[in-house]
Amino acid sequence: MIQKTVQEAIAYRRSVRVYDPDQSIDSEVVKECIRQAILAPTSSNLQLWEFYHVTQKDTKEALAKACLNQNAARTAIQFVVAVARKDKWKSRVKANLTFLKQQFEQQEVRDTKREKMANNYYTKIIPTLYTDFFGILGVLKRGLATIQGISKPMYRQVLQSDLDIVAHKSTALAAQNFMISMAANNYDTCPMEGFDSKRVKTILGLPSSAMITMVISCGIRGKGGVYGPQFRVPFNEVYFEK
Q1: Which residue among 3, 74, 184, 224 has the highest number of C-beta atoms inside a 10 angstrom radius?
Q2: What average pLDDT does range 152-160 have in this prediction?
Q3: End of a domain among 103, 129, 159?
Q4: Confidence of residue 1 (pLDDT cuts 50, 70, 90)
Q5: Total number of domains constituting the chain
Q6: Would the pLDDT of 2 be above 80?
């Protein structure tokens, strides 16, 4: 199979609503596209994401129902569910610290200044940002950031709801990597937000703290699978040079 270039894959990718039931897709190719997904940029390299590759018939049928039986779900050959896991920040911090320790130990001339900065970031700044108590600490941190922001630039996205968005953004970046990789392999996808998140979590055995970023149906476009020409507002309405 000849893979598409990045430009070709971006142009080819469309949200496909109907898949061809007679054309299967290779699960190993889909799995490799998920490997490409996790190379996406991620806030503080925390990688607060998980991807669930759904191939079993019963699970697919349950997931289609949880996605309101929309065509893109009902006709899907496989699914990939992108899940934001802000609740795993502690284990991701630990993984980063272990990796950084190994990297610094391998240096011929150890950069102790950079090592100290990295350790402080993951042992002090990240825990300060992500630790909360029923939302109370977040409000206090928001107030402090507002006061300090009067005299200097400050990071202000300190509420737990702000951090939810951060986790979703990183997960969405990875999901886009996945969909472009699928398009490069001549496979189609449709990112869906129309789903019952509680039921999706139950189907996948996820805790309530997990956040479903999107459910992505996968397959090969069938007749009428792309509903029409692609519409985008004029470029000059969204591009601004300053």
Answers
A1: 184
A2: 93
A3: 159
A4: low
A5: 2
A6: no
Q: Specify whether 215 is located in the same domain as 174.
A: yes
What is the SS3 assignment for 151-182?
A: CCCCCCCCCHHHHHHHHHHHHHHHHHHHHHHH
Does residue 139 contact residue 159 with C-beta atoms inside 8 Å? yes
> What is the C-alpha separation between 242 and 236, in angstroms, rounded?
13
Domain encompassing residue 64: 6-87+162-223
**H, E, C per residue of the chain:** CCCCCHHHHHHHCCECCCECCCCCCCHHHHHHHHHHHCCCCCHHHCCCEEEEEECCHHHHHHHHHHCCCCHHHHCCCEEEEEEECHHHHHHHHHHHHHHHHHHHHCCCCCCHHHHHHHHHHHHHHHHHHHCCCCCHHHHHHHHHHHHHCCCCCCCCCCCHHHHHHHHHHHHHHHHHHHHHHHHHCCCEEEEECCCCHHHHHHHHCCCCCCEEEEEEEEECECCCCCCCCCCCCCHHHCCCCC
Domain-terminating residue out of 159, 180, 201: 159
Burial of 109 (0-12, 13-18, 19+ CB in 10 A): exposed
The whole-number pLDDT of residue 3 equals: 86
The set of residues, in sequence order, having a beta carbon less than 8 Å from that of 38 and lying 6+ positions away, is 47, 49, 51, 174, 177
Same domain, 71 and 188: yes
Is this prediction's pTM over 0.70?
A: yes
